[in-house]
Amino acid sequence: MSQLELNSDVEGDFEELVTYFADVILPIPLPGSYTYRVPLDLKGVIQVGCRVIVQFGKQKIYTGIVTALHTTAPKVYEAKLIMDCLDVHPSVNSFQLKLFTWMAEYYMCTIGEVLNAGLPSGLKLNSESFIQLNPDREEQVDYSDKEEKILEALKSNDRLSYQDISEVLGIKMIHPVLKSLIQKGAILLYEQVKDKYKPKTKKVLWLDEKYLVDPVQMEQLFEELEKRPKQLEVLLKYLSLIRMDEGTTRAVKVDKSVVTEAGVSASGLKTLLKNGIFYEKEIIVSRIEATTTASVHQGDLSDSQQAALMEVIEGFQANKPVLLHGITGSGKTEIYIELIKQALESGGQVLYLLPEIALTTQIVARLHKVFGSSLGVYHSKYSDNERVEIWNQVSEGKVNLVAGVRSSLFLPFNDLSLIIIDEEHESSFKQYEPAPRYHARDSAIWLSQIHQANVLMGTATPSLDSYQNALEGKYHLVELHERFGSGSLPKFTLANILNARKAKRMHGDFTPELLEAIGSALEKKEQVILFQNRRGYSPYLICHDCNHVPRCQSCDVSLTFHMHSNHLICHYCGYKESVPAVCEACGSTAIRTVGVGTEKIEEDLKILFPEAHVQRMDQDTTRSKYGYQNIIDRFQNGETDILVGTQMLSKGLDFDKVSLVGVFDYDRIVHFPDFRSHERAFQLITQVSGRAGRKNDQGQVVIQTGEPEGGLLQLILRGDYKGFYQQEILERGNFNYPPFYRMIKIILKHKEPQVLQNAAVDYSALLVGELGKRRVLGPQKPVIGRIRNLYIEEIFLKIEKKGVSISKVKELTYRLNLDLRKKKEYASLRVYFDVDPV
Description:
Blueprint: H1 3-17, E1 21-25, E2 34-37, E3 51-56, E4 60-70, E5 84-85, H2 94-106, H3 111-118, E6 130-133, H4 145-156, E7 160-161, H5 162-169, H6 175-183, E8 187-190, E9 201-207, H7 209-213, H8 215-225, H9 229-241, E10 254-255, H10 256-260, H11 266-274, E11 278-284, H12 303-317, E12 322-326, H13 332-345, E13 349-353, H14 357-371, E14 375-378, H15 384-395, E15 401-404, E16 416-422, H16 440-451, E17 454-459, H17 464-471, E18 476-480, E19 491-496, H18 497-502, H19 512-523, E20 527-531, E21 540-543, E22 560-562, E23 567-569, E24 576-578, E25 591-594, H20 598-608, E26 614-617, H21 627-636, E27 642-645, E28 658-663, H22 666-670, H23 677-689, E29 700-705, H24 711-718, H25 721-734, E30 741-750, H26 753-771, E31 776-780, E32 786-787, E33 790-800, H27 806-820, E34 830-835
Parallel strand pairs: 12-17, 12-18, 13-15, 13-16, 14-15, 16-17, 19-29, 20-27, 20-28, 26-27, 28-29
Antiparallel strand pairs: 1-2, 1-4, 3-4, 3-5, 6-7, 6-8, 9-10, 9-11, 21-25, 22-23, 23-24, 30-33, 30-34, 31-33, 32-33
Helix pairs in contact: 2-3, 2-16, 9-11, 12-13, 23-24, 26-27
InterPro entries: DEAD/DEAH_box_helicase_dom, Helicase_ATP-bd, Helicase_C-like, P-loop_NTPase, PriA, PriA_3primeBD, PriA_3primeBD_sf, PriA_C
Cofactor: Zn(2+)
EC number: 5.6.2.4
């Protein structure tokens, strides 16, 4: 052997001896990443962004994401061996890793918490996972003995836990077997029973191939069926559907529903199936391919829309986020569609962010008509495995347009060129619990920077923060003040509740003005939307003899009465109890409801207008996967006359036949104890009012209030956003609130109120010592001071935008929190940070 060959072998052996390590982030609320040793058989397989299975602690198994590969062993602990790698190609790309890191730093949480929120559970194999049989698995696949054991166990069990599988196999190292079954498509992962995957299916029909192969047999079949006209009708319908495939020697499968909905005889089809002339099978279809082909978009832009489109493009060319301020009904969606077309034609990906699932239902239908199967939908009503389906399609470039709620930010985009944030003012873009407590609008703007993508924010009522950024030149402002087509702004009527009550003219919670307007709309066969931002039948029950109000056992709130289920329910922790027959405090039977929720309005309407079809849309009626879709479809199709709902009704829904919008409880909305209450009231009432009279004659809006002369209400009636902005921005400046100051809310929780109070005072003192008294507010109890048996205190930091480093303030705040919790008495204290609270 030559010296050169010898040196080559030595280098190869040396390479084998080098120990490689991987830094791995885990979906748990602990800071930083953890270093694991890469096994020899996985060297060259594991890449940055791959999912790996690792042990954490003595028993826990997690799926983590590799963020770096190197040869440096950890100094503090001995690195454990990576158990396995789940990916051939990375599941998470470099853009996502940058987003995870930024989000953890900006929103003061751990990167593990961001990963847990961003990665669908179906991509995470851990010791809390369940598995189920994949209903779409192939039976012909070869399985090992261990795999067969698991599959046999699943045939007699609906699901198996990680522990169950370990017991079935009699071993602890079960992950290689599970990995193999996942790769073979035999099993599916999920974390909760409610997320169990059910594939979308449809029934298909096809004609026995012998009739297509042999014209003589086809002729004989026609002669035979001439005496059976019902069966002949089925055959003719089938042949008309496959006409484009004439001359084929293979039977073409057609959707059974297309045949049956054509009015053919069900008994005729049944006989053909029984006689083996036709065959039937249920097949699984992709949810993403609901529309396979796009249609030509016929929506011509008006002159004002075309001018706005050109201004938006100017903003993009200046590399600025664009704020499109367009009044309700001005046709902002048509502009979005035109920009999406341009982005897709240039080969880029598009993210269309929406604040509510209710709004995705209607927007998605419009987008499907234009973009077909290029469109993917991503939100929480999809099961984990359905979200994995979209995740993979985006990663592979099969889906280049995604419409979804805030979690869509985490998808594996490779070439994002446009982000549209519809209804950018909506507080629903903010994640409250659990961490990361991020704002999707602000995070999307940061995401656009790492992708070099354009951002368009659209709304009829901009948030003060965004409008201020536009006026300062950080955003490019485009305004659209004309309604599209023949639509006109609605006529407002203020119904004075106090006067109606004094005159005893109220019908329950309805003023005579609102009742008359509803009756008039129904007579004209028009539709009505009634807005009440409270679900349930009544906010609470009260005993008229002793004033006792039933309260939650775990939270400092009264229980909401729900008539349909006949229960009192806590809307914070979910606690539920039966409605008492007598007062639990004094034994009296004089228990009465106080206030009104959507359920009570729905019941009253059915009594007042018995001929009308009434539907309710709130969290209680939309819990099922297609709850939103079904309610909106029925209203869109004219099957519902009156739609009662909470704020999800206000978010950009567009109905042709709505002529009246009624608003309950305006006064409670505007007087809510929060510095943004006036901004929210202006946005909410303006948005819900925009549902009236969009595409027909001028609509009407009836607002029930005890303060008809209120200044804010007059601005709403005039649609005077600029007047509202000028009035509100002065207040914000005078009292050091956003957009002039940044805010951080610190939430402290503990099961002992005195320990909590002491901790809050001590933490506040530490912060005041470093930041000064004027920047620290509190501690103070929130409106609801106890949830799930944990007492709550809050501290607010108000930091000026100029002259102070917000990142250094965050570092200081976090360090002082660690110092505080070193004290033994505060060991079980929970502290959370909410950056830019809304």
